[in-house]
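cron nightly-structures :: item 1 of 1
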Amino acid sequence: MEGVSQLKEWIEASNNIVFFGGAGVSTESNIPDFRGVDGLYKEQYKYPPETIISHSFYVKKPEEFYRFYCNKMIFPKAKPNKAHLALRKLEDMGKLKAVITQNIDGLHQDAGSREVLELHGSVRRNFCTRCMKFYNLEEMLSAMEGKEVPRCDCGGIIKPDVVLYEESLNDGVMSKAVSCISNADMLIIGGTSLTVYPAAGLINYYRGSHMVLINKTVTPMDEKADLVISGSIGEVLHDSV
């Protein structure tokens, strides 16, 4: 594939790589982008995805929120793909310093990556909004069985630790992401359209030598990248490491 040999050369010469990824990394693990409205969507939901996973909708219509959340955003059987495994390998080699992800599925950790900054939270973490008791994904799913809204033993609603529309990103995670990107000598961006803010704005902090963009479609940052590769993020990274 065109550009892979150049990417491989730059990776070999770099010692402070940061990866910034989006939904396209997980779609290769058969996790669909929730913004992709399939043929059955309009039969099942009265509202667009961005409306359903907003904070105000969660408060006003929790039953509809959790129905969408469980059907469209939780995939407990998904496994890491070639992209996740290649990034783990880069970290093991001491080259990759951080994975910054917009995904909430936890697959980077499943692949063995250690320094993962989850900008939008994770389905693996859930908390009671009343007593703050922690629930992992399995416990959350168990709490959902036969119920429209998951509730804690204390009666409070169990809310996933994911950032909904209208909610702010975690300041600590954002600060660390800014620091990692600012200090990187190479930034690999993959599987993201770079249209979701404020996460996409992190790219503007990069000051290193090589910005590489791997995506199947055009992004607003293509002209600023040093290398653009159009193709499968999993195949590209697998062939480059």
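cron nightly-structures :: done
DSSP finds eleven helices and nine strands in the chain.
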